[in-house]
């Protein structure tokens, strides 16, 4: 299965991705995670990406595409993948299609998580992420059992730099201008599945799972 998870920042893509990849046994490819890893390691891509991420802007397409292209050729992608946060622009969507066509492949489905702006803002301001395994928590909706400590690996939780109120507002604006047009793009290709992302995370997942089982 080759799946794209679409949705505004904070719509729950990462939360759902970790459940989907377990059930369907495909690798989770998150460009946001790849950028954060590059930033942590001080690579040239990381240094370039940081300038945009901290302002809530998209990293330019050429940088994003050069980072992700090699990832598709890795052996774990043979039986499919789940893309989280990519593509985010029409240029990226077209590049992805061209890359798949080279190997006579197509996307199986694009899952769009539909969540209102009000919910997004409250989710992102309460988001906490484990500095060791990357698990995501929320101070209101999904608290860790012990304050500031990951339930799974006991790592410390941190607030993402780009979850500050003014950056969140920017990211929502950028999403509407640059990423939202992908909804119509994939609708036109008849592979879009829209899921109500406002429900409890386990209900969102059950709906995604049912929908994906019909297209696999
Ligand atoms: P994205 O990867 O789309 O940016 P995340 O999965 O990191 O989004 O979720 C953003 C925040 O919202 C996190 O704090 C997460 O714990 C919380 N969250 C995710 N899904 C739900 C849900 N269905 N209900 C309530 N909170 C959620
Ligand atoms: P995310 O973890 O998906 O919310 O991504 C965090 C940030 O990384 C975004 O706000 C962008 O600045 C950058 N980013 C992630 N994926 C992409 C992408 N596909 N294209 C451009 N920028 C991206």
Could you say which overall geometry the principal axes of the C-alpha atoms support? globular
Let me know the number of strands.
Answer: 8
**What's the N-to-C terminus distance?**
6 Å
The CATH homologous superfamily is termed: P-loop containing nucleotide triphosphate hydrolases
CATH architecture: 3-Layer(aba) Sandwich
Q: What can be said about the biggest beta sheet? A: 5 strands, parallel
Average pLDDT number:
96
Class by alpha and beta content: alpha/beta
Give the names of the bound compounds.
adenosine-5'-diphosphate, adenosine monophosphate
- Assign a percent range to the helix content: 40-55%
Structure in words:
- This protein has one domain: P-loop containing nucleotide triphosphate hydrolases (Rossmann fold, 3-Layer(aba) Sandwich), CATH 3.40.50.
- 48% of the residues lie in helices and 15% in strands.
- It has helices at 13-24, 31-40, 44-53, 61-72, 90-102, 117-125, 165-179, 181-188, 201-215; strands at residues 2-7, 28-30, 81-84, 109-114, 127-130, 136-138, 157-158, 192-196.
- Helix 2 packs across helix 3 (44-53) and helix 4 (61-72) runs parallel beside helix 5 (90-102).
- The protein is globular.
- It starts with a strand and ends with a helix.
- The relative contact order is 0.19.
- The mean pLDDT is 96.
- Adenosine monophosphate binds at residues 9, 31-32, 35, 52-53, 57-59, 64, 85-86, 88, 92, 162, 171.
């Amino acid at each position: 299965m080759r799946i794209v998870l679409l949705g505004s920042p904070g719509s729950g893509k990462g939360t759902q991705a970790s459940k989907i990849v377990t059930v369907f046994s495909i690798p989770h490819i998150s460009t946001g995670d790849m950028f954060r890893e590059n930033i942590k390691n001080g690579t040239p891509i990381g240094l370039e990406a940081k300038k945009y991420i901290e302002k809530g802007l998209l990293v330019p397409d050429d940088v994003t595409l050069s980072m992700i292209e090699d990832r598709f050729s890795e052996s774990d992608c043979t039986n499919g993948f789940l893309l989280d946060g990519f593509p985010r622009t029409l240029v990226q969507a077209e590049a992805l299609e061209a890359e798949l066509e080279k190997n006579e492949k197509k996307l199986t489905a694009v899952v769009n998580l539909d969540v209102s702006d009000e919910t997004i803002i409250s989710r992102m301001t309460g988001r906490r992420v484990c500095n060791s395994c990357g698990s995501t928590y929320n101070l209101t909706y999904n608290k860790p059992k012990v304050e500031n400590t990951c339930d799974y690996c006991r790592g410390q939780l941190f607030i993402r730099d780009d979850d500050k109120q003014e950056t969140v507002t920017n990211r929502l604006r950028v999403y509407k201008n640059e990423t939202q047009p992908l909804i119509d793009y994939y609708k036109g290709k008849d592979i879009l599945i829209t899921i109500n992302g406002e429900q409890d995370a386990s209900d969102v997942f059950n709906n995604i799972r049912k929908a994906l089982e019909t297209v696999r």
